Amino acid sequence: MSASRAAVVVLGAGTMGQGIAQVTATAGFTTRVFDAAPGKAAQAIESIGGYLEKLVAKGKITAEVRSRAAASLSAATDVASACEGVELVIESAPENMELKVQLLGQAVRAAPAGALIGSNTSSLSLTELGARLVAADRTVGLHFFNPPPVMELLEIVRGIGTSDATVERALAFAAAIGKTPIVVRDFPGFATSRLGVVLGAEAIRMLESGVASAADIDRAMELGYRHPMGPLKLTDLVGLDVRLAILDHLHKEVGEQFRAPALLRQMVRAGKLGKKTGEGFYVWKDGVAQPPKGR
């Protein structure tokens, strides 16, 4: 899929949607952003502009790239106008099947008949999603990682009905945006979420039982196994509520090894969701994680 004049729509302007839109716009795709919350898409584009300015200041990108990316971005006020003439739809809504079906159902009706229907889901069934959209052959998982502008991997998930042509187009898209893809079959949690949440859940259980502090558990994985970020800090970055939803889904679909730790559920109920709320396993100040007392 060539970036030249191709149009992409990102449905959902949260942390992931914003990052995905930055990636596609920087790669040269005309990128529209839609979010159901009034004004959120416009705010996301403004935030992307600020981030691009920082990259220019750090010498990471040129002013020309920044200007081209900014010119490629626009906010849409409804799904129909957002999807007009696009080659690729990327949904980045919360991990709720009914919500994704409702949102992408509108996109299927509004987008051209040949448009790829992509979902950034990290655990839900692409097979079910494609079947319910009555667009199984062109529905594919495009699972980005947080933060999308930095992380190299793109997990491409093929449902039972996903066509070979759709997978090839998804692989071409990955190349066009400078990502390294892996292709996985549609099993609960795919490859990355299934492995990642197991490690994160066990780290939470270790913290819960007093094995070590959050900082020391993370440091062990960073220094002992060369992980770029420890599992507890990563959970803060992803969002404790997001990790809980994935664990609950995998517990239901796969088995007992994915039962969520009690501490995780308690923290979500307390509104301590990680970086986005300012506190999770760490206290976050100006984007920097600081271990809280007692952890």
Structure commentary:
The chain has 295 residues and is α/β, with parallel strands linked by helices. The chain has 2 domains: 7-185, Rossmann fold (3-Layer(aba) Sandwich); 192-285, N-(1-d-carboxylethyl)-l-norvaline Dehydrogenase, domain 2 (Orthogonal Bundle). 47% of the residues lie in helices and 15% in strands. The protein has 12 helices and 10 strands. It has an 8-stranded mixed beta sheet, with helices on both faces. Strands 9-10 form a two-stranded antiparallel sheet.
CATH class of the largest domain: Alpha Beta
Helix count from the secondary structure assignment: 12
- Named at the architecture level, the CATH assignment of the largest domain is 3-Layer(aba) Sandwich
On the 0 to 100 scale, the average pLDDT is: 94
| Beta strands, count | 10
| Percent of residues in beta strands | 15-25%
Computed CA radius of gyration, to the nearest angstrom: 19 Å
| Distance, first to last CA | 47 Å
Reported for the largest beta sheet, the result is: 8 strands, mixed
Structural class: alpha/beta
Spatially, the strands of the biggest sheet line up as 3-2-1-4-5-6-7-8
Estimate the helix proportion, in percent.
40-55%
Characteristics:
295 residues, alpha/beta, Rossmann fold, N-(1-d-carboxylethyl)-l-norvaline Dehydrogenase, domain 2, 2 domains, 8-stranded mixed sheet, two-stranded antiparallel ribbon, 12 helices, 10 strands, 47% helix, 15% strand, globular
